[in-house]
Amino acid sequence: MKNYLNNAINYFIKLESKIAFYPTLMSLGGLFFAFIMYYFESLGISSYLVEHAPLLVVNDTDTARSLLTTFVAGLISIMVFSFSLVMILLNQASSNFSPRVLPGLISNRRHQVILGIYISSLLYSIFTLVAIEPNGNEYQLPGFSVLLAIVFMTVCLGAFIYFIHSISQAIQVNNIIDKIFSTAITRLEVLIDAEEEYKTDFPDTSNWHVLKSFKSGYFQDLSSNNLIDIAKANHCKIEVIPVKGTYILKGAPIVKYNVDLDEDFVKQIEASFLYSKSELIEDNYVLAFKQITEIALKAMSPGINDPGTAINAIDYLTDLFLLRMHKNDRGCYIEDSQPIIKVGTVTFSELLYSVMAALRTYCKHDIIIVAKLFNMLKYLLINNTKYSEHYKEAVLKEVENLYQDTLKNHSNSTDLNRIELMYNEFLTYNSNT
User: Which of 82, 223, 228 is nearest to 156 (CA)?
Assistant: First the structure.
């Protein structure tokens, strides 16, 4: 039962990122509130307010109909315009930056809430309009409900103004990169805080039982609580083979375990793997490196030619790599100071190589970007003194790769001298440390 509950929670978290999630909930709320007002009107709330607070009641049938009809037509127009702006935002972000940033923009909660305000107010106004009787008088007219519709319409106008401001900010590349960066920082800090030092290495898994994938898809997330419960219940150790974000083919090995498990536990392990077609940084911080790198590469394409954006992206990558150096290259879940679950992770050297390989390929012709990459690697090397020696070797390897590529793509003597100077700084620092 607990496993099903964990799966339901994980499914809800994924559903929350959909663009229609909050609008749907708020629409149901608007509909429910309209029926609540039906009930209060049947109790005579409008007739009571006509006698004691007439300013809070719209007691003219024609005025009420005109207002509500105008509200319905105006809200539909606002919704069409707002949805059009969202589509324009997504299209521009996809063409100018990277298609991978779309899930993050779609899951923008502020835009979802604003769209939800529109739809819930629209439904409330429609049902309030239906409640007006053809020959109603001041006692039959839902005057207080009409006043509330005016209040909701005022809120919608304020939300529309905020929406215009928000959408104009969301389309700016600096804000897109900053959101990706902030989300990745939060995820990395959670992983770093959750790490515990242990002295015992994870056992050799070469002869363990192997569980193969029952379907194909992108390995988006893992229900770790389920696996921990299974490992504790069976007194076993589990290794998760694939890395988050990779595409798993049907029949590929995904899990190894060191004891015989019955069919029920095997099915629970399979249910712990969450497959998805979208990518969310909240689940996998590596996607932030990929997305920021792709934004930098797109900025350096001939069609856009925006080296300033590429420089900003490299600054954010530098900060992310520096924080990543605080994290171990191995991922484990600990129980009683012993690792019981080993999780496949992207090592620092692999991550640095994948980012630098792409930047070297598409930016090596620009001496300004090359200098920025040398500065990034220099900063990582200087701040590596208290971290793993493997991290230092990975940085020095990328320095050598960058140096070789840039020499082959520059012929100007000034540029070559600058490249040699930056490279010699690394050699000098390395020899002194």
Answer: 82
The model carries a pTM of 0.76
Task: Count the Cβ atoms, other than its own, within 10 Å of residue 407.
Answer: 15
Identify the residue whose tokens are 């069919």: 263
Contact indicator for 121, 156 with CB cutoff of 8 Å: yes
The residues near 428 (Cβ < 8 Å, ≥ 6 apart) are none
pLDDT in tens, the chain (433 residues): 444 555 555 555 566 667 778 888 899 999 999 889 888 888 888 777 777 777 777 777 788 888 889 999 999 998 888 878 777 777 777 777 766 666 666 667 888 888 889 999 999 999 888 887 665 444 457 888 888 899 999 999 999 999 888 877 877 888 888 888 998 898 888 888 777 655 567 777 788 888 888 888 888 777 777 888 888 888 888 888 888 878 888 888 888 888 887 788 788 888 888 777 666 666 788 888 988 998 898 888 887 778 888 899 999 999 999 999 888 877 777 776 677 888 878 888 999 999 999 999 888 888 999 999 999 998 888 876 556 778 888 888 999 999 988 888 888 888 889 888 888 888 777 776 6
Residue 72 Cα distances to 161, 164, 277, angstroms: 18, 20, 37
